[in-house]
Specification:
The complex is a heterodimer of chains A (440) and B (369).
Chain A lengths: L1 H12 L5 H38 L15 H11 L10 H19 L16 H9 L1 H12 L3 H32 L4 H7 L25 H17 L11 H4 L9 H26 L8 H7 L10 H32 L5 H31 L14 H45 L1
Chain B lengths: L6 E5 L11 E7 L2 E8 L7 H6 L3 H9 L6 H16 L5 H29 L5 H21 L8 E2 L2 E2 L7 H24 L2 H7 L7 H7 L4 H5 L6 H4 L20 H25 L21 E9 L2 E9 L5 E7 L1 H6 L2 H5 L4 H11 L3 H5 L1
Antiparallel strand pairs in B: 1-2, 2-3, 4-5, 6-7, 7-8
The chains are: A mainly alpha (440), B alpha+beta (369).
Chain lengths: 440, 369
Amino acid sequence: MYDMLAALINGTLGWSWPEWALHLLSYILIVTIVLVVAPLQMLFLTYYERRVIARMQDRIGPNRVGPEGIWQPIADGVKMFTKEDIVPQAADRIVHFLAPCVVVAPTVLMFAVVPWGPGMTPVDLPTGMLFFFAISSISAVGLMMAGWASNNKFSLLGAMRAVAQMVSYEIPAVLSLIAIVMIVGSLSLNEIIAYQSGLLISNRDLAGIPDLGLGWFVFTPVGFVAFIAFFIAALAEGERTPFDIPEADSEIVAGYMTEYSGMKFGLFYLAQYVLNFLLCAITAILFFGGWQGPGVNWLYEQGITPANPTGNGLFNVLAGVLGVFYFLLKTYFFFFVMVWLRGAFPRLRIDQLMDFGWKFLIPLTLANLFSAALWVAFIRWGPAEGMLITVGWSPVLRWLAAFVVTLAINLGVYLWLTRVYAASQAERRRAELEELSATV
Amino acid sequence: MLQTQELQVNIGPQHPSTHGVFRMLVTVDGETVVDLKPVFGYLHRNHEQLAEANTYLQNMPYTDRLDYFNSMANNHAYAMAVERLAGIEVPERAEYIRVLMVELTRILNHASAVGFMINDMGAWQTPLAFGMREREKILDLFEMASGARLMCNYFRFGGVARDLPPEFIPNLRELLRALPAYIDELERLLRDNEILLQRAVGIGILPPEVALSYGVSGPVLRGSGIPYDVRKAEPYSVYDRFDFDIPVGKVGDVYDRFLVRIEEMRQSKRIIEQVLEQLPDAKGGHINPKARQNVRPPVGDAYARIESPKGELGFYLVSDGSAKPYRYKVRAPSFINLTPLADMCRGYKVADIVVILGSIDIVMGEVDR
């Protein structure tokens, strides 16, 4: 993003700025954009969720404030700010105050590495994905702080659940992402997006295929399983139905947020929606090509890029607009799926959730890692250094072989696991009943 | 070995899913329920003592407020008790109208009970909205007949307050046409949803002998496999003229209770269809013209019980010959069905408590009185 901004600043103002001023100016701009976009996204998401759920329930939803109720979140925000901030007498005041900050800060930080469009990553880290997931797990600390400092049993139960859930679901999430990282060979989110150009199956490896920006990972067997596993883990990590156990309103009131009011509560709310948005965004980036889509790459190549400094800046803007459009379209689609699930499903119990994570998702993602390794062995190792049997195969043949083999492995493991998992669940239920009847 | 400590948690009285002001003092070991003590009385309104200061007719609207979901059923039980006490005859048409209203009440109660239970499982209002959809249409019918949607106050001694308006029967037929699809939809929601099954099957088991020893009644008892229904065991009104089945569960868990409720909705629909076939014309009159509403029953006592949607609802009245009851006692099914809660919850998880409570289907207005 810095390159683009620097070029734009230089281009529009007509004279060459000193390097330090350019840096300062563009980073201030970037930080401002991130800090404005994050809460705005959250405001819109709350409105969007309420409207969609209302439709599912045969209601209209917020429609009083502004046209179609579009200013409702602003009104809610004003309400949050003007509400009394109540701290329970027995609470640990400092930790109680710090907890929302610890929860919000990482989610905003995560925004910094999200590639919004071609050349539009606020901070293009070569280890963007690592940063994203490392930072996201910090909020678990904040949740525990909130639950402990509130000195309320519901809060404590909620925080315990939240931490247990987040910690155990980070494993399948990261395991499913490693498969993608193996195929791409990079942790940079931009690299991962760039890899998904082309058409249909992740085939930057195949020459001579038109670049429509549709080579998404989700079309490969490895990517598909990783996507399903990751999205389920993301639901758990973002505390969305059916995994909204830490704040199960029908059981433990509001979980770790029970003793929060006013803007502190608002901050938790903000963090949660921003995290959900980011999880949807990262799903779109990793498995659905992020801003990739028909036309974006072509437009971007005509514009000013590091490789082509003499291009036309207009094309940068066009590519940016189209890329952001594709990106937001995908992201909002996943958020819609989250809302849809929330409108349709009851929630699981914490022990069922743990079972599912440890006994089903983790074995599945581990098998998927194996598939990913095979995919790499088949495709990325060239004819010269490939596996013994693939030496001399044409790229198309190797690609087909990789597809068939990984599909067979993933499908087989999935079918086998569902049976084993169902059997283990039935066994557990039986054991529980026995134990219960022994106590009664 | 890690030192652990049992935690005492108060669920309620101000809690989103205790169905009113109800408190459960839960001792948990981690997430597992070790013990549970139900505490109620927060909604005590002195209902029974109040009734002794009112005339018999003045009490009729008060019975609406017991179980505010099923005001028609409460009216019926109370009217029957007073009629037995004072020896009032009820014309046939009035009996049929009463049965019709109470069976409609059963459908609306069970629909919302299923919705509320799924809500307690954590679904975000949508199943509840589904459950409420048909309830609205039934409430429209109630409004046509009685003028009120919730607190109907429709029954009188010797009949009902007004005859059915002309538009009532066509509307009812339309509702009956839509009902089977709607009930199937609710059942599919329950049977085909893996998460729901995980949360319901094998949870909150109430063995038949325990259920009997607590005096549980209604869908909770039938869910435990005991085919006891006052409509069959001691037919009152005109129930002996209808052909219907009593669904029973096998295990006595949350799932069985709700399958029983859904099947009962179908049976209620069957009864309503038979009512429509057999309903005498308006010549019979909707109320016994000789019945005085400001009754002064002779000295004595009477007990009347009906199968309300939540279980066996009984009214016991003692008369001293004056215009006011000397003693007025309600046998409320919600209250008695609530007593085995601790036995049902012990050994399950915290999250199961609210589901089990939801599956009992209580209304605090009836528990605390």
